[in-house]
Amino acid sequence: MIDLAPVFPLPNAVLFPDTVLPLHIFEPRYRQMIRDASGGDGHVAIALLEPGFEDDYDGSPAFHRVGTLGRIENLESLSDGRFNLHLIGLRRVEFEEIPAPTPYRVARLIARNETGVSDGDPEIVRAKLDLLASHAFLVQQVAGETASSL
Fold it and tell me: Is the pLDDT of residue 121 over 80?
């Protein structure tokens, strides 16, 4: 597990494990982040900015403490210093931000123990899906009764 990573806080985008997030990097501080990360282990973490970030966007606005560690792929350096890239989601992490001598933010990463079934026993998956469908049906019935009583 990676211990430290640069954090790229975004206002309206998230990264999930095993997904791809295409990014166009244009701000100077994040250009530096991509140069540093691509010259190192190639990892960047994505965090979602907390509501109200607008007043401090150029500073250090608060971000959610859970995000995803990603790996830079398909890096394209543009002639004006911008970058296009794909970030591949690796795993969910918790952030513990630390002071950094860089223009971008850095955090200590704490691995999240994820629960859930993936590539598991098909019978368990089927039972969970049946249970989920039953709950969805009940919610739909209750919502319908509530709507008709309005």
Answer: no
